[in-house]
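Page 47, continued from p. 46.
Same chain as before, 332 aa.
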Amino acid sequence: MTDGALGIGIIGAGWWGGQHARAIARAEGVRLVAACRGDGGVEDFVAAHGGTAHRSVEGVLADRAVDAVVVATPHHLHEAHAIAAARAGKHILLEKPMAPGTAACSRIIAAARATGVVLVLGHSLRFAAPLAAAKAWLDGGEFGAVRFARGAMIKLWMEANRRPWHLEPASGGGLLLTAGIHTLDAVLWLVGAPVRDVHAVVATGFHPMRVDDLAQLTLRFEGGAIGSVTSVGYRDGAPSGGIDLVCERGTIAIDPGRGVRLGQAAKWRDLPMALPADVPGQALVEEWRAFARAVRGEAAPAVDGEAGRRVVACIEAAFESARRGVTVEVAP
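Result:
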């Protein structure tokens, strides 16, 4: 650590790694010191963003300037890379999904606990200004508990950053694990109760591939709330989605890119907030600031390993429900 700033190594310096590099440059308390990627091109990456280029994960983990890493590799590699980082004594910001299955998630949590490193999950949508403002409003208690939540992620699937591993079941591909998980995690976070069971329909409707681009999940929460999460990756269209909450004494409509509306007495009003020009980019900056605070011991991890495991458990149950055509209990 130099001048109090955490030295960050990027494991997986691809397109999303570049988004992290730009956020690190804007966030206090962190600085980029190293990077690696598995398919070449790391020299160009560090030329653009800074740090030392390494040809392997082992090189980053052996770099004494690295205090913490962000793991932004393909989903099926998260377990191996996170556990290796923990054993090397590096704090970890682990991209979502934590891993494609809950057993792997549990092993990552155990490794972090055994080595005493801080483990934070990269569910960046929680840090988007509208979501953070809605959560703060809910926590204030004026509207009471959430009784119904509806979330949707409807977006282009074959974006320029889509890679072959996104299209294969063995590597944890598919829209639900890649993008729909953002909305699912946000719904779980906003409702604030464990999911009891899931009934789901999961399909491939738009693309010639073996992973999902369509999913509809119905959730039942402990305490009686119910929820709905839609995950759609279209071939052509325009993005839409958001989250609607029906609480005991009011309704909340969240547009992750534009703001929040509050409903009472048949009228809507805007929830005042400072909305940045680049909401997703600023969310990553806030995620890094929160990570630095957690490593310094100033705050608990904003999204800990158990939270990361819970959302994967819901997806695991959703896939099983879709296969069997039944409601499936979510593993605790």
